[in-house]
TrEMBL record:
The lineage of its organism: Bacteria, Pseudomonadati, Spirochaetota, Spirochaetia, Leptospirales. The gene is mtnC. Bifunctional enzyme that catalyzes the enolization of 2,3-diketo-5-methylthiopentyl-1-phosphate (DK-MTP-1-P) into the intermediate 2-hydroxy-3-keto-5-methylthiopentenyl-1-phosphate (HK-MTPenyl-1-P), which is then dephosphorylated to form the acireductone 1,2-dihydroxy-3-keto-5-methylthiopentene (DHK-MTPene). This is Enolase-phosphatase E1. InterPro entries: Enolase-ppase_E1 (IPR023943), HAD-like_sf (IPR036412), HAD-SF_hydro_IA (IPR006439), HAD_sf (IPR023214). Belongs to the HAD-like hydrolase superfamily. MasA/MtnC family. One of its GO terms (molecular function) is 2,3-diketo-5-methylthiopentyl-1-phosphate enolase activity. It comes from Leptospira neocaledonica.
Amino acid sequence: MEEQNAELYLFDIEGTTTPIEFVHKVLFPYSVQNFKPFFSETSAEKSFAEELILASKNESEYTEEVSDSPESLTKFCKYLVSKDRKLGILKEIQGRIWKKGYESGELKSTIFSDVPPFLERIRKSGKRAAVYSSGSVEAQVLIYKYCEAGDLTVYFEGYFDTAIGGKKESSSYTKIAEKLSLSPRSIVFFTDIKEEADAASEAGVRPILLSRPGNHPQAEHSYQVIQDFSKILA
């Protein structure tokens, strides 16, 4: 059993608390199926179309001109998903679509079984927990609110997405520490990506990598690697 000298635990989602398979085989396909209905609704904000058209200017591989028609926006969003782009506007749109799916009961998120007991240990020990993911803050909250284990949002005091900065940029972790009024050295960050661990480490945050089923192999590194949270006492 290992006890970490930390005041706050910062969690990535995909490949860390949630299986990669759930994100890529459930959430992404659900958004792809619902892009057109979303853009066809009169409630779809005009700014979404404007931002997507602007974003298309930076996609040299995408040769079609993007217009504000539901068909054009849908096709471009499907392209962005196929390329696994971490574009903020795409994440926001997906978050809106997933919200409807969760609230209707069509979607229920999968969380690794060792996560809820670990979150409870963190709370009982008087420590803190937060989330940092490339998915929008809204999407993060939905994953933890509508999961098979029940509503886990009670365990997290903050959520951060790429609006604060990219996950492979050390300044992002510095900003998160400042937002939480903590020294970076009092934060432990759980991720499944070496480059994110590098950025966190550069900022003074201690990274721990998760080696979950379905996770991608990482380049050689010297960080601590765990298979799950069962041996972390908090």
